[in-house]
Write a structure and sequence with these properties.
It is a single chain. By secondary structure, this protein is of the alpha/beta class. The protein contains 14 helices and 15 strands. The protein has three domains: 81 residues, Winged helix-like DNA-binding domain superfamily/Winged helix DNA-binding domain (Arc Repressor Mutant, subunit A, Orthogonal Bundle), CATH 1.10.10; 127 residues, Nucleotidyltransferase, domain 5 (2-Layer Sandwich); 163 residues, 2-Layer Sandwich (Nucleotidyltransferase, domain 5), CATH 3.30.420. The strands form four sheets. Strands 6-5-4-7-10 form a five-stranded mixed beta sheet, sandwiched between helices. A five-stranded mixed beta sheet has the order 13-12-11-14-15, with helices on both faces. The N terminus is likely disordered.
C-alpha cells in the first residue's frame, strides 16, 4: 500500500517507545503541554520529549501556543496537525451518493450529493465519486498528494480485509469488485470500505452518545440493516456479516403466502417492513408512489392507509429488534434511514414490540430514539472510522520507524 507523500521520519526514534500512542492522546485531547502529557501517561520527561520530537519532525504534531509563564521558561502546547492534509469520504446509498472532504480529524469541510441508483454499477457510481473528489480538492486548493485516506460506506456486506462487497442483494455488478484498486492509480493512500449501517452506528455513537459503549443502529431506508457498536468499537462479526437484520425471516400468523425478498428468499424482515416493500404495498392499495421519499411524504399527510402500513411495518421490524435487544443488550437503539422521517408512527411500533417481548433487565435503561445525525450519519461515521484507521498508533509507529 502506497503511503501519502511527505512523511518525514526521525532516525532517533527508538523501537522501545510508541509515538503512535502519543499521537492518539493528542488527537483525543489537543492541545497539551509536555507536563500534561507526562501526567496523563506516566512517562518520563525524556521519553515524552523523544516522542514529541518524532511527531513534530513528521509534521503530525504542531506547536499550539504557550501557557502564561509563572516562573521560568513557558510550557509550550502541542496539538495534532489536523490541517496537514485531507480525507475524502463518501456515503453510497441505494438511491443517492453523498461525498465530503474533511480535515484529518474527520471534521467535514465540503460536501457534494446527487441522486444515483447504486444498481447502475461500480463504474458509473465510482465515476461520479471521482468527479466529486476532484471538484472538492480543487475548491479546497488541495492536490491528490494531500489526501491521507479515502473511505466509502456501501449498502451491502463488506470483506474488510479486501475492501470488496460480497454478494450484495441490491448492488448489481459490485460483487468482488476491487474498490480500493479503482482509486489506487490516482491516490497513494489507504482506501477503506465499510458497510453503511456500521458507519452510521459509529457516527451516532462517537458524535452523539460517546459515553455509551453498546449501541444498536437500525437503518430503515429502501432496505433494512443494522450496525452494532460494542465496547465503543464497531462489531463486524467473524467475517464482516454481522447486522444483517433485514434478511432475518419472520412468520406472520394467518398469512397466506410469504412475500418474496430481493435477496431471493421469502418472508424476510425487509420484504415486510423495508421502504421498497412499503412502496409495493401502497401501489397495491392504489397509490401512485414510486419512491420511498414519496411514501414518507404520503405518511406525513396523515393518510390513514399509509399510516396504518408504516405502523404495521414498525411492529414487524420491532419483533426483529426485540430479538436483537435480548441477544445484545444495547443501551441505545437508534433508528435512521429514509423511513425514520416518519418517526412518530415507525418508532411507536418498534417500541411497542421491544418492550413487550424483551426481558425487563434488557429494557430497563434502554433508549429507542431517532437518528440525531440524520442523512449525514453514514458520512460522519465513515470519516471518523477512516481517521482512526489512518492514524492508528500501530500504523503511525510503523511509518515513523520504517
Amino acid at each position: 500500500m502506497t503511503e501519502p507523500s511527505g512523511w518525514a521520519v526521525s532516525p532517533a526514534v527508538s523501537p522501545a517507545v510508541s509515538p503512535g500512542e502519543m499521537l492518539a492522546l493528542l488527537r483525543a485531547s489537543s492541545p497539551l503541554t509536555r507536563a500534561e502529557v507526562m501526567r496523563r501517561t506516566g512517562l518520563s520527561r525524556s521519553t515524552v520529549a523523544q516522542r514529541l520530537d518524532a511527531l513534530l519532525t513528521a509534521g503530525l504534531v504542531v506547536a499550539a501556543g504557550e501557557e502564561a509563564p509563572g516562573r521560568g521558561r513557558p510550557a509550550g502546547q502541542f496539538a495534532f496537525h489536523r490541517d496537514r492534509g485531507v480525507l475524502l469520504v463518501v456515503d453510497v446509498g441505494a438511491t443517492a451518493v453523498r461525498a465530503a472532504l474533511t480535515d484529518l480529524t474527520g471534521s467535514i469541510h465540503l460536501e457534494r450529493t446527487t441522486a444515483l441508483d447504486v444498481a447502475e454499477g461500480p463504474h458509473r457510481v465510482l465515476g461520479v465519486i471521482d468527479r466529486f473528489f476532484a471538484e472538492m480538492l480543487a475548491e479546497a486548493g488541495r492536490a491528490t498528494a494531500d489526501v491521507h485516506g479515502i473511505g466509502l460506506d456501501v449498502p451491502g456486506p463488506v470483506d474488510i480485509g479486501s475492501g470488496q462487497v460480497v454478494s450484495p442483494p441490491i448492488m448489481s455488478g459490485w460483487d468482488r469488485f476491487d474498490i480500493p484498486g479503482w482509486f489506487r492509480p490516482r491516490y497513494g493512500c489507504p482506501v477503506m470500505v465499510e458497510n453503511d449501517v456500521n458507519a452510521m452506528a459509529f457516527g451516532e455513537q462517537r458524535s452523539v452518545y460517546p459515553d455509551t459503549e453498546a449501541l444498536l443502529m437500525i437503518k430503515v431506508g429502501t432496505g433494512i440493516g443494522a450496525g452494532l457498536v460494542a465496547g465503543s468499537a464497531v462489531y463486524r462479526g467473524a467475517d464482516g456479516a454481522a447486522g444483517d437484520i433485514g434478511h432475518m425471516q419472520l412468520t406472520v400468523p394467518g398469512e397466506a403466502a410469504q412475500p418474496d425478498c430481493r435477496c431471493g428468499n421469502t418472508g424476510c424482515v425487509e420484504a415486510r417492513a423495508g421502504g421498497w416493500a412499503l412502496v409495493r404495498d401502497l401501489r397495491a392499495a392504489g397509490y401512485a408512489v414510486s419512491t420511498v421519499d414519496e411514501a414518507v411524504a404520503l405518511i406525513r399527510t396523515g393518510d390513514t392507509t399509509a399510516v396504518g402500513l408504516v405502523r404495521r411495518a414498525g411492529r414487524l421490524l420491532g419483533g426483529a429488534v426485540a430479538d436483537a435487544v435480548s441477544l445484545l443488550n444495547p443501551r441505545v437503539v437508534v433508528i435512521g434511514g429514509q423511513l425514520a422521517a416518519a418517526e412518530e408512527q415507525l418508532l411507536a411500533g418498534i417500541r411497542e414490540m421491544v418492550y413487550r417481548r424483551s426481558l425487563p433487565l434488557a429494557t430497563a435503561r434502554l433508549h429507542i430514539v431517532g437518528s440525531t445525525l440524520g442523512q449525514r450519519a453514514g458520512l460522519v461515521g465513515t470519516a471518523l472510522l477512516l481517521a482512526d484507521l489512518v492514524f492508528a498508533p500501530r500504523r503511525i509507529d510503523e511509518l515513523l520507524l520504517a
